[in-house]
Design brief:
Layout lengths: L9 H7 L10 H8 L6 H5 L4 E9 L5 E9 L6 E7 L14 H10 L2 E5 L11 H15 L1 H4 L1 E11 L1 H16 L6 E5 L10 H5 L9 H12 L24 E7 L5 H13 L4 E6 L6 H4 L4 H18 L8
Parallel strand pairs: 3-4, 3-5, 5-6, 6-7, 7-8
Antiparallel strand pairs: 1-2, 2-4
Helix pairs in contact: 4-12, 5-7
Length: 322
C-alpha cells in the first residue's frame, strides 16, 4: 500500500516527466551511469576567468586521489576555499559532477574550488570513500599558502552522497583535531544507512530520481553485509552520538524525497548539541531538484539561498571587518 506523501512542485513535474526512467540498480546500470554523458569541464570553464590545475595526493593507503583546483585568475592571496565532494549514490560520478554549483560560488566570492575524485563503491567499501575525501582536504589545508587559500575560510560542501561524505569528513576533522573547517554545506545529504525514516518509507515502490530501493542498494554497495553496530559514524554520520563542536552548518532537502527526515533530524541534533545549523526544506522538491533543473523557480530559490548563506559565512559584515 502506498503511503500518503507530499507531492512534487508542479513546475518540477514537467521536466521530471521528460527524464528517462531509471531501471533497477545493478552492476550493469552502475556501469552505464558511470559513462553517462555530462557537460565537459572545458564547456563549464568556457568564458570564465579561471585557471585549472590537476594534482594527485596520497590517500591513507597511499593510492593517489585526483584533485581538481579551480582558481580565479585575478584572485588575491588568502581567498576562501570550497572543498567540493560530488554525489552519485557513492557509486558513480566524478570530481566534475555538478561542478557548476561550486563554480557559481567561485564567480561570486572569488573562492578557490577544489573537487575530489574519491574511490567509488562497490569496488571501494567501508571508510575508504570518506578517508579519501579527508586526506584530500588535509592536503588542501597543509598547502593553503601555496594555493592562495585562507586556511580559516575552508568550507566543505557536497550534494547527496557528497553531502553525506562532507558530513563524515567534518566529523573526522573534529575528532582528529585537524584540519580546521569554517563551515559545512550539506545539500540533500545521504546521512543514514538505516533507511528507516517516514520519508524513506513514503518514497518506496515508485519511480523516482532516488527511491528507498535505490538507497538500500547504494548503502549495501558501500557496507556489504556490515549493517549492524560496526558501521562507522564517518560513513553513516547519523550514527554519531555527539554532534557538538561542529562548524556552522547548512542543510537543505525537499519535502518529496527519501532523505528529508534524516536531514531534518541531523539539523535538530546539531541544535540540541548547542551548534549552529541553518535548515531549508523546499516544498515540492524531489531529490537533487535544484541540481537537475536549476531554472525552475523553487530550484533558483534554493540555489540563491545556499549562496546567500555562504556570503554570510565567507564575507563578514561591515561591522565585523575591522
Amino acid at each position: 500500500m502506498n503511503l500518503p506523501r507530499p507531492g512534487i512542485d508542479p513546475e518540477l513535474l514537467v521536466p521530471l516527466t521528460e527524464l528517462p526512467p531509471m531501471p533497477p540498480l545493478g552492476p550493469e546500470v552502475i556501469e552505464l551511469l558511470r559513462h553517462f554523458p555530462q557537460p565537459s569541464i572545458e564547456t563549464q570553464l568556457d568564458g570564465r576567468a579561471i585557471s585549472r590545475r590537476e594534482v594527485a595526493v596520497p590517500a591513507g593507503d597511499g593510492v593517489p586521489i585526483p584533485l581538481s583546483i579551480f582558481s580565479p585568475t585575478d584572485r588575491a592571496a588568502g581567498a576562501p576555499c570550497v572543498y567540493w565532494i560530488h554525489g552519485g549514490g557513492m557509486m558513480w560520478g566524478d570530481r566534475f559532477s555538478n561542478i557548476d554549483i561550486p563554480l557559481e560560488w567561485l564567480d561570486r566570492f572569488g573562492a578557490v574550488v577544489i573537487s575530489v575524485d574519491y574511490r567509488l563503491a562497490p569496488e571501494a567499501t567501508g571508510t575508504t570513500l570518506v578517508d579519501d575525501c579527508y586526506h584530500g582536504l588535509l592536503w588542501v589545508a597543509e598547502n593553503a599558502a601555496d594555493l592562495g587559500i585562507d586556511p580559516a575560510r575552508i568550507v566543505v560542501a557536497g550534494a547527496s552522497a557528497g553531502g553525506g561524505l562532507a558530513a563524515g569528513v567534518t566529523l573526522m576533522a573534529r575528532d582528529l583535531g585537524t584540519p580546521a573547517i569554517a563551515a559545512q554545506l550539506l545539500s540533500c545529504p545521504m546521512l543514514d544507512h538505516r533507511n528507516s525514516s517516514s520519508s524513506s518509507l513514503q518514497y518506496s515502490g515508485l519511480d523516482g530520481v532516488w527511491t528507498r530501493e535505490m538507497n538500500e542498494f547504494g548503502w549495501r554497495s558501500v557496507l556489504g553485509d556490515n549493517t549492524g553496530d560496526n558501521v562507522s559514524r564517518y560513513v553513516s554520520p547519523a550514527l554519531a552520538d555527539d554532534l557538538s563542536n561542529l562548524p556552522t552548518t547548512y542543510i537543505d532537502a525537499g519535502t518529496a524525497e527519501v532523505f528529508r527526515d534524516e536531514d531534518v533530524t541531523y539539523a535538530t541534533r546539531i541544535w540540541a548539541a548547542g551548534g549552529q545549523a541553518e535548515l531549508h526544506v523546499w516544498a515540492g522538491g524531489f531529490h537533487g531538484f535544484s541540481a537537475l533543473f536549476p531554472h525552475v523557480r523553487v530550484s533558483d530559490a534554493a540555489r540563491r539561498t545556499q549562496a546567500d548563506w555562504l556570503a554570510r559565512v565567507l564575507e563578514p559584515g561591515p561591522d565585523l571587518k575591522d
